């Protein structure tokens, strides 16, 4: 028996969401869709983690391709390209920060200020991958703007507008603000984790230039929590 194989940890199998993907907008060049919570954006490495948003969409739209991603635990709106020129055009918009996105999040505690921003650089925490960390030496610029929508006795609902698109940016910035997102199993403390059955983070809107017509295209996708 190969000792190296015997010592490998078992593969991490992600949950398989049975919730359908909603088509919010459709034309011959792109889709706006709602990704369910607990559905990968792209296939995982393990064969049992092949089920994901893009493989499901390709059953009906064979030319569909991923332009950006949402985390497994995050639900909400995504744009999907249906041809190569549209994919290239939309990708450039993301790279040039011309795509405007908003998210809703429910966070721990009462956020005192009505609006503000978190401007802290983010780097990969290589010893604890896939976790990220704030690092002023090696981190990349990361900016999140926020606005309080509602306050409860022990939580606040925020509208988040990421200017940059770093991995786990909203989760780690809310933690650094002192108000981790409820249900976050990566960056929230135990009290905040226990206050929700899922990560309360949802992509609510997306605004971009249509790759063919040049018109402003805006999609809306209200949170269901």
UniProtKB/TrEMBL annotation:
<dbReference type="InterPro" id="IPR006224">
    <property type="entry name" value="PsdUridine_synth_RluA-like_CS"/>
</dbReference>
<feature type="domain" description="Pseudouridine synthase RsuA/RluA-like">
    <location>
        <begin position="29"/>
        <end position="175"/>
    </location>
</feature>
<keyword id="KW-0413">Isomerase</keyword>
<dbReference type="InterPro" id="IPR020103">
    <property type="entry name" value="PsdUridine_synth_cat_dom_sf"/>
</dbReference>
<dbReference type="GO" id="GO:0000455">
    <property type="term" value="P:enzyme-directed rRNA pseudouridine synthesis"/>
</dbReference>
<dbReference type="Pfam" id="PF00849">
    <property type="entry name" value="PseudoU_synth_2"/>
</dbReference>
<keyword id="KW-0698">rRNA processing</keyword>
<comment type="function">
    <text>Dual specificity enzyme that catalyzes the synthesis of pseudouridine from uracil-746 in 23S ribosomal RNA and from uracil-32 in the anticodon stem and loop of transfer RNAs.</text>
</comment>
<dbReference type="InterPro" id="IPR006145">
    <property type="entry name" value="PsdUridine_synth_RsuA/RluA"/>
</dbReference>
<dbReference type="GO" id="GO:0003723">
    <property type="term" value="F:RNA binding"/>
</dbReference>
<dbReference type="GO" id="GO:0008033">
    <property type="term" value="P:tRNA processing"/>
</dbReference>
<comment type="similarity">
    <text>Belongs to the pseudouridine synthase RluA family.</text>
</comment>
<keyword id="KW-0819">tRNA processing</keyword>
<protein>
    <recommendedName>
        <fullName>Dual-specificity RNA pseudouridine synthase RluA</fullName>
        <ecNumber>5.4.99.28</ecNumber>
        <ecNumber>5.4.99.29</ecNumber>
    </recommendedName>
</protein>
<dbReference type="GO" id="GO:0160142">
    <property type="term" value="F:23S rRNA pseudouridine(746) synthase activity"/>
</dbReference>
<dbReference type="GO" id="GO:0160151">
    <property type="term" value="F:tRNA pseudouridine(32) synthase activity"/>
</dbReference>
<dbReference type="InterPro" id="IPR050188">
    <property type="entry name" value="RluA_PseudoU_synthase"/>
</dbReference>
């Amino acid at each position: 028996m190969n000792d190296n194989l015997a010592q490998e940890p078992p593969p991490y199998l992600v949950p398989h969401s049975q919730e359908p993907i909603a088509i919010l907008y459709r034309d011959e060049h792109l889709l706006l869709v709602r990704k369910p919570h607990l559905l990968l954006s792209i296939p995982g490495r393990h064969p049992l983690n092949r089920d994901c948003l893009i493989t499901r969409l390709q059953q009906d739209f064979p030319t569909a391709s991923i332009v950006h991603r949402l985390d497994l635990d995050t639900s909400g709106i995504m744009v999907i390209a249906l041809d190569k020129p549209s994919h290239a055009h939309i990708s450039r918009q993301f790279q040039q920060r011309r795509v405007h996105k908003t998210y809703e999040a429910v966070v721990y505690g009462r956020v005192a200020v009505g609006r503000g921003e978190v401007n802290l650089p983010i780097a990969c925490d290589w010893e604890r991958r896939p976790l990220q960390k704030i690092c002023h030496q090696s981190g990349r610029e990361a900016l999140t703007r926020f606005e309080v929508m509602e306050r409860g006795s022990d939580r606040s609902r925020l509208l988040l507008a990421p200017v940059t698109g770093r991995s786990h940016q909203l989760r780690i910035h809310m933690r650094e603000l002192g108000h981790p997102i409820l249900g976050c199993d990566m960056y929230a403390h135990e009290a905040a984790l226990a206050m929700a059955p899922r990560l309360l983070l949802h992509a609510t809107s997306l605004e971009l230039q249509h790759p063919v017509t040049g018109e402003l295209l805006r999609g809306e996708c209200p949170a269901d929590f």
